[in-house]
Amino acid sequence: MIRTEGLTKQYGRITAVDGIDLDVREGDVYGFLGANGSGKTTTVRMLLGLVLATSGSIEVLGRPMPASGRDVLPQVGSMVEGPAAYPQLSGRTNLALVDASGPGGGRRTRAGRIDDALARVGLDGVDKRPVRAYSLGMRQRLGLAAALLRTPRLLVLDEPTNGLDPQGIREIRQLLLDLNAAGTTVFLSSHLLAEIEQMCTRVGVLDRGRLVLQDELADLQRPTGRMVVRTPDVAAVRGLFNGQVESQDGDRLWIRVDDPAALNARLVGAGIRVAELAPEKRTLEEIVLEAATTSGDRR
């Protein structure tokens, strides 16, 4: 769905995006992660033909961009750098203008598409209110509604939950997952690790313009081969598994084992009180920090 090779963007002597090779596959919910200023939005703008690359190549939906933008963009819903809108007009009127100005729309079905998009993002009850009266979260919802007007094959979203309260974030998360289940590929640029971890199947991490990590999230979070044991009987566990305890933090121990069932049986047999027993899995935060640190060491 999205493929780049050596994608680079320079502004004078500043390299904002440095030779990245994105691989977003059909059916992905792809999380594009990075700190503010890492080059995420510049990358998104290049993918959509809003900014020209200095070098490298871009394919979206199997077609070169920006050369094929006329054919590709009607199949892509996008929201970049926050939603744009005329503040004096209603949300409904803003969507009508977006639909009329873009390729691929039809006047006969416009009202129905707008109704559906507003309902999907939870704005159907306030659609006639002027946008200047909208909260930041409502503006985000309106921007997402604009991206959904034509049932896109690909959604490209830049920080779509910015300004939303926890309930709104949960609703948008579920909407995106439902769209993905129905066949829409989602490319989600964000700095919110918790949201990416709950939604995405595949992640790419951008650090100072470089793509330092790209993989399936499930593969990155596979068990490490260690078990986490929380117990008040720390000394007894250390004695029982002498040499296998690799680290300790208070009443938590990390034990390297080949057979978790055998570990559990030995704990039970020794009468050790266990409050927690689980395989260790790295969090997305740990994975991202490690990738950024490793990249920094190579520079």
* Whole-number count of domains: 2
Number of discrete helical segments: 11
The largest sheet has its strands arranged as 7-8-9-4-10-11
Percent helix: 25-40%
CATH class of the largest domain: Alpha Beta
Mean pLDDT across the residues is 91
Can you give a write-up of this model?
The chain has helices at residues 40-47, 69-72, 91-101, 107-120, 136-147, 166-181, 193-199, 217-220, 234-240, 260-269, 284-298; strands at residues 2-11, 14-20, 23-24, 29-33, 55-60, 63-64, 76-79, 154-158, 185-190, 202-207, 210-216, 226-230, 245-249, 252-256, 276-279. The longest helix is centred in the middle third of the chain and has 16 residues, at 166-181. Helix 3 crosses helix 4 (107-120) and helix 4 crosses helix 5 (136-147). The chain has 2 domains: 2-220, P-loop containing nucleotide triphosphate hydrolases (Rossmann fold, 3-Layer(aba) Sandwich); 226-280, Alpha-Beta Plaits, CATH 3.30.70. The chain is an alpha/beta fold and 299 residues long. The strands form 3 sheets. It has a 6-stranded mixed sheet with strand order 7-8-9-4-10-11, with helices on both faces. 36% of the residues lie in helices and 26% in strands. It has 11 helices and 15 strands.
